[in-house]
Structures are given as structure tokens and as C-alpha cells.
Amino acid sequence: MMKISKSERIFRVINCIFMIALMFITIYPLYYVAVASVSNSAELMSHTGFLYKPQGFDFGAYKIVLRNKNIISGFINTTILMVSRVSLAMVLTILGAYVVSRKNAMLAPIFMVIIVITMFFNGGMIPTYLNVRSLGLEDTMGALVLPSAINAFNLIILRNAFAAVPDELEEAAAIDGAGRIRMLCMIMLPLVIPTLMVVLLYYAVEVWNSWFEAMLYVRKKSLYPLQLVLREVLINNNATGMGSGGSGDSETMSETVQYAVMMVATLPILLVYPFLQRYFVNGMMIGAVKG
Hints:
14 helices
């Protein structure tokens, strides 16, 4: 076995301490929110310092959240929005990335330059809003799906993954009589599954966390996504009206209700991430090697 020097041991100890401290800094805020959401509101308000365990175990905040129609409708709207927008985004990204990744595709370099330009410049918020309104998309789900249906950065990642696939595979498929659609579905997509999962995760997180577009284009509260409902609760301090009982009960629970709403909005994406995490590093490497 290789002998480890004293300086190497010191470095490893310092590195371990630093990583543990970094892990604590990263995990503690989420742990605090989780513990505070199941605490008694009065005891939580009187508590100071670090929070290690629930202060008077109480699920009252979650009962208030799950009874609130805005939270339920927001969750449903976000789920519908995620399925529709992510599906459309994946289809458009796959088709666009495949076209610009082909060396013999007409005007592919020009299209690539135009796509890169959109990463740095756009029409601006006001022209985009006027465009959405003129198309009759205001106060509809279409306003949250169509204007931002594709992300140029994700397209470039997937384009690089397609470009890394050997051309000989497509040539062999062409000899066997396969068309472009069949080549894409049967050859290219199975070879870039890790990158597809990364792009899918990027789109899913983007859609789940989005609220600004809904704030601009949607006026009906029945169409609010979950994150916009969460914004009202946290920033506008609108948790006092969430309970079904008297106003006094709601005001007492308002602190823990805010933490409960955070957990409801965060848990779904945290539960999905571990299933896609194994593709993450591999997919990013595939999409970043060849330009």
C-alpha cells in the first residue's frame, strides 16, 4: 500500500471537515423547513436558535394546506403544465437538436448561430407580453406553454450528444432503407438516453419552479400554478385566510402553514430527482465533449 504523507493526511482531514460543513449548510435549511412544518406554531414562534426537532408535534398546518382549494388547484395546474410543456419541449428539442447536429443538413450552421444568439438576446418582456395578448393566449394555459416551449441551452446539450454518435451507424441504417425518422427513433435516441434524462430533468425543474410567466399572463386564480400560490403565501403573507376555521386559528397557524406549503411545493421534485440522478453526470459529459 502507498504510504500517505503527513501533509496528505492533514489535507484529507481538512477536506472532510469542509465537506461535512458544506453538507450541513446545504441540508439544514430544508431540514429546518420540514421540522418547522410539523411543529406547534406557538412553540415554534417562541423557539430561538437551531431547530433540531419538532416543537410540539402537530400536523395541523398540513391539514390547513390540503384543505385549501388554491393549493389543490395550483398542484393540479402545475402537474398539467409540466406534462404538456415538458412533452412539447422534449419533442421540439429532440427534432431541433437532431437537425442541427447533422453535417449534411442544409443551413444547419446558420440555424445554430441563430439559436445561440437567442441565449443572449430576446425580444424583451413587453414585446413578448404584447405578442401573447395579440395571439389571444392571455389567461390561458397556452401562455405558459408556447412562449417558452424550448430552451436553447438544452437544445445545444442534446445537439452535442447527437453529434457524438458515429456517422457510420446512420450510414448503415440508410443502406438498410431506414428513413430519418426511423434513424432518430431507433438509433439516435437509445444512444443518448443519459443526455435525454438530463434535459428532461432540466425542463421539469424549470417548469415546476416557474411563477414569473404566470404572474404576467394569468389573472384567474383558478389557473395559478403552485409556485405562484406559494409566492402569495410567502411574500404577500396571505396564509391567514387559508384555514377553514376562525381567523384566530388561521393567524396562529400562519407560520407553520408557510413551511407546510414549502414542503408541499418541494417534495415532488425531490422524490423524482433520485431516479434521474444516475443519468446526470454521464449525460452532461456526453453532451459537453464534442462541439
